[in-house]
Write a structure and sequence with these properties.
The chain is mostly helical. The chain has two domains: about 5-225, no CATH class; about 225-295. The chain contains eight helices and no strands. It is rod-shaped.
Amino acid sequence: MSRLDAEIEILQGSAQDAQAFQPGRAHSFQADPFQADPFQAGNSGSFTQEPRFTQARKFNPTSIKGNARMGIFSRTRDIIAANFNDMLDKAEDPGKMIRLIILEMEETLVEVRTSSARTIADQKELRRHVGKLDQLQADWGDKAQLALSKDREDLARAALLEKKKAGDMAEQLRSEIAVLDDALRAYEEDIEKLQNRLREARSRQSSIAARLQSAENRVKLRTLLSSERVDEALVRFDQLERRVDYAEGRAEAMSLGDSRQPTLAEEIAALQDGDTIDAELAEMKRAMNAGKNGSE
């Protein structure tokens, strides 16, 4: 227990005075969460050890993680400002490039959200410290009043000094909270912009995939049309059509000036010729289809 607390407890020995300074609420002068021994025994009013709450000055999440945050912000803004069209035009494989872009954007979005969560946690921790420091100020104010009522101005002055230290530390932490508020707003804006660019990139990916598939189909079609087997089948098909035309021409020529009805033998022969031609025509079609399937 510090000398200041010990002397204040002596002053609290008078029940009437103690009650006068505890209206409606209980004060615990021995359970200050941040306090150590601000005075050494036997050295009234002389500080020899810094109170524990001043150690909170070492807690500075903004300065500790500032470089990491700046790195994330820089990377995020590079992605937001990137020219996708220029990158894809220069890429040898646009499909692969857009996949890499989307992957990097997704990873950056996760990092920004993670950093945002850490910043929120830092804010909550700082606010807890501020709450404790505010309570500490109230406790030291009560102690100063008690000491002054007992004509111990030296103790009252020391208590007010401790109250001021707690107040200064609380203001410093509030400044840190304001810095984190600005960082959170920047995170929120960057997350929204990243999500918009990610949607744009995914839309471009679908468009690129469709164009690539269309180009591949055109290449296959041209390869098929330039196949020698297809050309050969088409030539044979033309030859067969010419044979059919010739046969029909002969039949028409033989019937010129002849109005008689064809004999049964002639009709059967014509049917046989037709079957032969139909069979050969079917064989030609089958060969052509086989050539197309082989090219695919």
